[in-house]
Amino acid sequence: MSGELICKYNPQGAESEYKMPRYTEEFKEQIVRKMMPPNAMSVAELNREIGVSGATLYNWRNKYRKEGKAVPADPSNPERWSGENKLAVLIETAALNEQELSEYCRSKGLYVEQIVRWKEAAIAGNESGERLTKAERQVLKKERSKSRRLEKELNRKEKALAEIAALLVLKKKAQAVWGEEEDA
């Protein structure tokens, strides 16, 4: 922290003076680095550890994301990162040689193979690891349930058809053995 700002209003809106902390850019960067792999601390953990509010930590993280630095929302699973974070990693690693790339991956908790896969997906223009939106997941769920329902109905009809075919075969065999039935 570098200094404090005196505010004339307290959080409840009443007029009073209290000191708001000011943080240096180095401090902010150090805290944001703790949110990145391999540390991958959550905002709640950092809040408890250093006492900076969650909203402030989220703002810092978002600021670094806008600057093009990879600060994932789910640092524990790089495959679930957003396309934006994967692209930021690709940009950061574009000019690195193999040794530097390996060192970068170790520092971020990634594998070289992941970055290669992300690059191939970006070149192909299709990010297969992208998560679906809530609406897309609901549509997919409805389509899957409709498909299961139709498959069940088709199986039921196939069984009924097989049963009718078996009854017709039995009827013909019975007629062949006992002769034609006379209708009264």
From TrEMBL:
It comes from hydrothermal vent metagenome. GO terms for molecular function: DNA binding; transposase activity. This is Transposase. It holds the Pfam family HTH_Tnp_1. The keyword Coiled coil applies. Keywords: Coiled coil. The keyword Coiled coil applies. Residues 140-167 form a coiled coil. GO terms for biological process: DNA transposition.
